[in-house]
Amino acid sequence: MGCSLLPLFVAVLAARFVVADPEEHGPVDGAPPSKIAVVGAGIGGSATAHFLRQHFGPEVQVDVFEKGEVGGRLATVTVNHNDYESGGSIIHSLNLHMQEFVKQLGLKYRRNVAGKMAVFNGEEVILEETDWYLLDLFRLWWRYGISFIRLQMWVEEIMEKFMRIYKYQAHGYAFSSVEELLDSLGSSGFINMTRRPLSDSLLELGVSQRFIDEVIAPVMRINYGQNVSIPAFVGAVSLAGAQNNLWAVEGGNKLVCSGLLKMASANLLQAQVNSISPIHSGEGLQYQLSFTTATGTASELYDIVVLATPLQASVGSGVQFQGFTPPFDELPGSYHSTVATIVHGYLNTSFFGFPDPRLFPFASVLTTDTPDLFFNSVASVCPVNISAGFRRKQPQEAGVYKVFSPQLLEKSQLKTLFRSYYSVQVTEWQACPRYSSSQRLPPVELHPNLYYLNGIEWAGSAMEMSSVAAKNIALLAYHRWNRQTDMVDQRDLVHRIKTEL
């Protein structure tokens, strides 16, 4: 990304955030940091702790603060003696960091249980999978022409460019902003995609409006609970996650987080961080974190701090920034609320046009953007531990279903979706940013040695996006501390890496 793309972004932030001066980072004598704090133990925070340990070595103390459960938005609920994913549940096969985590931790891939999908428009099923792949392709072509081929080629091109990040990171290169990272992968094209609605990009690509309404919109609703006006890059991330080559972790995806913290020998503090203050002393710039645990309040000094929790006011992180010049607090923007309702009961297949549940062939039903529909999707879900003899429940049997909806479901709505039910468990997530093509990407560097991980979510929210951001911040913190400016925001990395080999 050339400097010409940044003036507005920089001007907006200059009044709120201190520009990081490289000379303020590491100590003049080259001493390594003694203590690093990571605030948040979701996938981003736990991966950051792991990568920080890799780069800074065994001597540094890594403290991880978490006010809730380890795993954050990777979480499970228990139904009828089995655990089910209530948060982030699928991982793409090209997610190389997540694959490496599973391998290093000795975890296993969860066995895949096949199930067909349909799209419902509030009155009837308008699109459905069958047992015959060629028939499905013919139906797509008959209804939408070559729109699905154009979409597939577009997503694959974006994924191919995005995969460059793994080479860059393997060679140790880091980026000081989300814009710089995106620019290194897809030049100005990726940055423009964060500022343009998905629907506009797809129409220009030659994808039909009907395909957008009946296929793309349902995918956006199940993944982000939002419509096709979200930025194109976010949409591409979502569509990549809607492909068939997906997987999950046996025992629950949150096991990756606890495993990474253990592998990093991180010191987990069950605590709410209340404030962060810069402290200038003979040791140079440090940060004082004040926090509350079950036993009372305390404070500690850290050389480097990584915030791996959203700082927007709508999320309520509870972190206050004190003593910064100029002052700043939460970041602009808000998070989108999505309700995940886990129901153990009998699906009302008549609602979808199938009076006899034995004839209902679908494991998941997505929905179009229809005003009267009160839910985004309903799906039969499998437990996080799948035995060899496990089979998915038939619709005429009592099964476990996950319903995504924009608001809490009323009893009448539950009775519409289910003939009867034994239990209902509700989790309301601040699931992802409320996306807008006018929203600028948050900064990565808030202050020297003070980093913000969750800005990556505003480009695209996914486990792997957080893992990529974690690796980037660990590299950036290491290079800033050691004043290795030649490893940050370098241009033409594709050519540079080729010449290094």
Quaternary state of the chains: single chain
State the end-to-end distance. Answer: 25 Å
CATH architecture of the largest domain: Alpha-Beta Complex
Spans of at least 5 consecutive residues whose pLDDT stays below 50 are: 1-20
Do you know the CATH topology of the largest domain? Polyamine Oxidase, Chain A, domain 2
Question: Would you state the CATH class of the largest domain?
Answer: Alpha Beta
The major pleated sheet works out as: 7 strands, mixed
CATH homology-level superfamily of the largest domain: Protoporphyrinogen oxidase, mitochondrial, domain 2
Overall mean pLDDT stands at: 90
Question: Biggest sheet: strands side by side, in what order?
Answer: 7-6-16-17-18-15-19
Q: What number of domains?
A: 2
Secondary-structure class: alpha/beta
Q: How many β-strand stretches?
A: 21
Provide a count of the helices: 14
The Cα radius of gyration reads 23 Å
Strand content: 15-25%
From the spread of the alpha carbons, the general shape counts as globular
Helix content: 25-40%
